[in-house]
Amino acid sequence: MMSGGEASRTGAREVAAGTAAAGTPVAVLLTCAMAFSMMQLFLVGALGPRLVGELGVSRTELGLTTTAGFGVAALLSPVAGRLVDRVGPRRCVVALLSLAAGSLALIGAAPGAAGLLGAVALGGLPQALANPATNKVILAAFPAERRGAVTGWKQSGVQFGAFVAGVPLSLLAAAVGWRGAVWAAAGAAAAAAVWAARALPADGTSAARGGSAGAAASGAVGRLAVFSFLLGCGVASVNTYLALFGTQRLGLSATVAAVPVAVLGLAGIAGRVGWSRAANGDGRAEALPSLLALGAVGAALLLAAAALLHPLVWPAAVAVGVFAVSANAVSMVLVMRRSAPGRAGQDSALVSAGFFAGFAVGPPLFGLAVSAAGYGPGWLLVACEFAGAAAVTASSAVRRARPVTA
């Protein structure tokens, strides 16, 4: 027979195991929700050469499609954050997946650049809902010690979407046309919306709690928003133009040029999971954003060098995923640790708004730089954006690490 203490410990382990097993489908669903919330970005990037050829979209117009979607996402993110806090994350996850399905269907039906812009703009709505809604689900459904790992997997869904756009959907586009590939993605998003409606717990059944009330300093969240803006400028430029860089500067075919986008996505999955786990430990998270941004500077410099030494595009794509893309997941871990109860949606939305604003601004600036001076200076512009992000968070980490003297 077991003693009372042994029975108690065994019971606790059984409860923990049951909670982990029950939480796995939710974690997978949140990963899918993040993938579909930004699928349009990666499809426009991976299918860019086909869109330029068939629809007559210029490089600048290709950048403007990203601006349309993420401009809407940046403007609506504050409203989306308050909405999530008010009506609950389950309804919002179902809504974002449904809107993503509609946006993708319209992209597949777009007759030209104007229709493409409108469809991508609609895709800004699920993007605005994505981080606030999924972060609130994590706070409600998972204990504090699991949130870093689950956040990493959840945020890696964005990069899983990049991989799907770069390989399976690109291959499908080669077989049935790019419109058929986009419509297939729309159907999958609609199926995920049905899954979310059935799998997620009803809103309001549990209290979602963040960190202590004093942890959510508005200044810290504001600095993360600025960091995310600069980071978003660079990441969006790489996502939107990497495949086009491969065809126009490196001499790759349209199908092969989409592979670096997939490589970036796979590296981003590993980076987001690994760095988010590290950020969940005490004392580690504060220094990580600036360190990752510095690594992203090196990745952008590798892309600039790839214009002269073409094989460098492959390690550059890996480095962008491991450093630049992963930094956003660490930001989400920090937001959830600092948010006061009831404000996780609004704080997540503020940081997301900065990231989306960067996605809206970065690609058009990059397109103008490339048109004026070539891809090399364009990648140097991206390196400067990442360096600025590192400076913002480095100053914040120094202030928090400085001892208080009497």
Characterise the protein shown here.
With 406 residues, this protein is an all-alpha fold. The chain has one domain: Growth Hormone, Chain: A (Up-down Bundle), CATH 1.20.1250.20. The chain has 17 helices and no strands. It has helices spanning 4-37, 39-46, 48-55, 59-87, 89-109, 113-122, 124-141, 144-166, 168-176, 178-199, 218-248, 254-257, 259-279, 288-306, 313-338, 344-373, 375-401. Helix 4 runs parallel beside helix 6, helix 4 (59-87) packs antiparallel against helix 16 (344-373) and helix 8 (144-166) runs parallel beside helix 9 (168-176). The longest helix has 34 residues, at 4-37. The model is unreliable at 1-21, 205-216 and 401-406 (pLDDT under 50).
In short:
The protein is mainly α. It has helices at residues 4-37, 39-46, 48-55, 59-87, 89-109, 113-122, 124-141, 144-166, 168-176, 178-199, 218-248, 254-257, 259-279, 288-306, 313-338, 344-373, 375-401. The chain starts with a helix and ends in a 5-residue tail after the last helix.
Q: Helices and strands in order, then pairings?
A:
Layout lengths: L3 H34 L1 H8 L1 H8 L3 H29 L1 H21 L3 H10 L1 H18 L2 H23 L1 H9 L1 H22 L18 H31 L5 H4 L1 H21 L8 H19 L6 H26 L5 H30 L1 H27 L5
GO molecular function: transmembrane transporter activity
Pfam family, one: MFS_1
Keywords: Cell membrane, Membrane, Transmembrane, Transmembrane helix
Number of strands: 0
The SSE order reads: HHHHHHHHHHHHHHHHH
The overall number of domains is 1
Radius of gyration, Cα only, in angstroms? 21 Å
Roughly what is the average pLDDT, rounded to an integer? 82
CATH topology (fold) name:
Growth Hormone, Chain: A
